Amino acid sequence: MKYDYLIIGxxxxxxxxxxxxxxxxxxxxxxxxxxxxxxxxxxxxxxSGVLHAGFYYTADSLKxxxxxTGNRLMKQYCQENxxxxxACGKLVVAQEEKELxxxxxxxxxxxxxxxxxxxxxxxxxxxxxxxxxxFKKALHSPATASVDPKRVCAVLKxxxxxxxxxxxxxxxYLGQERQKGADGHVVRTTTGDFAADRTVNCAGLYADKIAKxxxxxxxxxxxxxxxxxxxxxxxxxxxxTNIYPxxxxxxxxxxxxxxKTASGEIKIGPTAIPAFxxxxxxxxxxxxxxxxxxxxxxEARLFTANNFGFRDLAxxxxxxxxxxxxxDLARHMVRHIDPEGFTEHTLPGIRAQLLDQRxxxxxxxxxxxxxxxxxxxxxxxxxxxTCAFPFALYVVDKYMLAV
Length: 403
Known about the structure:
D-Amino Acid Oxidase, Chain A, domain 2; eight-stranded mixed β-sheet
């Protein structure tokens, strides 16, 4: 079967790109393949569901360019499709004097990016969240919200099927070869070969591997980081809004924070624990010896050289396996919370974080490479879910329709 577009991966980016293709080319033949039995089995279905507001990111980044618009468009899509949105907002809190300067930097970035953000005093913060604890000031983001990411992806998949997009689940990518005497590639899979004029790689944790098959992504490799959340089962009322600490702006992780889910539940997390293979969710599930050896070698080099503070990060994050330690980190941001109320772990996630092997630094922004035959979304990390719709438009316009 010959397709105009073959998309590898049915996470939020694969679905959003297919949606944008059909908006621009309604008659295009589109196939989405995925090695899992259903859509959004990995990062897109395991993330926090927070719709970010756009104030963490430097003005020259794609993240800054897409987050504010993405927040609005995702809320609009949810409203049109009766998907609940918890418009609870966010407070970023300081713990000491030196963090106030970072709060003002976040406000500056947010306003430059078009986000609605405001530095408020402690009294105003307490009106928004009576349980919050902050040092003198806090940053308020009323546009931050939460959705159920698996539900969003399920509705998107159904929409796409209604537009004629085909899906082939339980279909693992095996390799590719250029079509003889024609444009495009033949993609080999466990369920057969598929020919396509354009192949779009949205494979998340395996995007770098697939990109290299097409001679892209040569400078990069993915380092997986495990995100774990603890659920507060005592009640849904002790915290009313998302509460985040001031982040370390030198790395892409936001620290342990309080999240209000789409259904109003409270959880704390996530961790950013270095994983030992790409789908290292629990114990030995999905274990791959080759991945284990490859990733452990990369992480050992980073640990030894302490590139981007990896050693310090790894040692700190490993401590978060201790439930009491993780709860203590969160307790600094509120006036009262019952430590015994955190009784469950939610589904863990793995962040497919790109490492630039030339600089030995984590890549902070989105990365896309490609030509007229193939496109590779290499670094679609947070806030990629928030940014999905404008990010997809960017990929389609720049890499798929303009070449």
